[in-house]
Each structure stands twice: as structure tokens, then as C-alpha cells.
């Protein structure tokens, strides 16, 4: 455990456990997450997962304990090649089965955006339903708004 994690942060928190599809990567979230579950409808999330949106939870990177071989993909080279001035970001994957465990945006270097579909079902149930939806302007067609969740056109903290 990192020395930066206070005993208070870790106390009384039952770790959340998850893994990739093939079981090569296993992980625990060992302290309370940094936020509440949210959905993201942005184009990157669609492409990375092959789905219509991602289901996520922001956790401190030092609370995410991973075992097994993983690969981190970064958008940096791809972004430069396209002359894109957007923010860099990346994702952590299983090199065997391709499951994405989390996104690692460069603008929040101390945090990871966990893809919560990789959690064990019983731990996923502990989280409850999403409280926010991001990039709703890029929501395509049929996904209905999550009842009771706040819908944002883009990323709501963008300054
Ligand atoms: Zn795997
Ligand atoms: Zn997204």
C-alpha cells in the first residue's frame, strides 16, 4: 500500500474486485472511490469499448492495485499524426484479451477512470446506478436518460 494513502481513507472500506475477460488481469480498489458512477457517451468511449457508452467510476490511481500483465495505450502519437490539439489520454488494457480496465486521462494524472463493467457482479451492485451522464451531446439514438441522473452536454468540470 502506498504511504500516501491515509489510514482513514482505507479504514472500513471493503475492496472492490474486478478482472479482465481472460483472467490475466485482476485488480482491487482498496479505498473509497473519488466519485460516483457515471456514464460517458463520447466518441472515444464508444470506439474503445465497441459499445454505445461507457460505465465508469473515478478512483485514485494509487488505490487501484493491479496484478497481471497489462498494456497502456496513449493517444499522444496518434494525436500528433492527426494534428489534433485535444487533450492526451490513454487506456490500460489486457494484452491477451483486449479488455479495457480503465482510462488514464493526462489531465487528471492522479486518477483513473475505471470501466466498472469489469467489476465482479456483487461489487458492481454495491455501487448503485450512475448519478451523471457526460457528453450527452454525442448520445446516439436509443440510449434513454438514466432517471435521476444529471445530464451534461460535455464534461461538466471543463473550465
Ligand atoms: Zn485478459
Ligand atoms: Zn468518454
TrEMBL record:
Keywords: Lyase, Metal-binding, Zinc. GO terms for molecular function: carbon-sulfur lyase activity; metal ion binding. This is CENP-V/GFA domain-containing protein. PROSITE patterns: CENP_V_GFA. InterPro entries: CENP-V/GFA (IPR006913), Mss4-like_sf (IPR011057). The keyword Glycoprotein does not apply. Belongs to the Gfa family.
Amino acid at each position: 500500500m502506498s504511504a500516501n494513502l491515509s489510514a482513514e481513507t482505507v479504514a472500513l472500506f471493503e475492496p472492490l474486485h474486478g478482472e479482465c475477460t481472460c483472467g490475466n488481469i485482476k485488480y482491487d480498489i482498496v479505498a473509497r472511490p473519488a466519485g460516483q458512477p457515471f456514464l460517458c457517451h463520447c466518441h472515444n468511449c464508444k470506439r474503445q469499448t465497441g459499445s454505445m457508452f461507457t460505465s465508469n467510476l473515478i478512483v485514485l490511481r494509487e488505490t487501484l492495485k493491479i496484478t497481471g500483465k497489462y498494456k497502456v495505450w496513449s493517444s499522444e502519437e496518434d494525436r500528433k499524426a492527426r494534428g489534433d490539439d485535444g487533450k492526451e489520454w490513454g487506456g490500460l488494457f489486457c494484452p491477451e484479451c483486449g479488455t479495457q480496465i480503465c482510462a488514464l486521462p493526462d489531465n487528471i494524472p492522479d486518477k483513473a477512470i475505471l470501466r466498472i463493467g469489469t467489476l465482479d457482479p456483487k461489487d458492481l451492485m454495491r455501487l448503485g446506478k450512475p448519478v451523471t451522464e457526460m457528453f450527452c451531446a454525442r448520445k446516439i439514438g436509443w440510449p434513454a436518460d438514466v432517471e435521476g441522473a444529471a445530464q451534461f452536454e460535455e464534461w461538466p468540470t471543463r473550465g
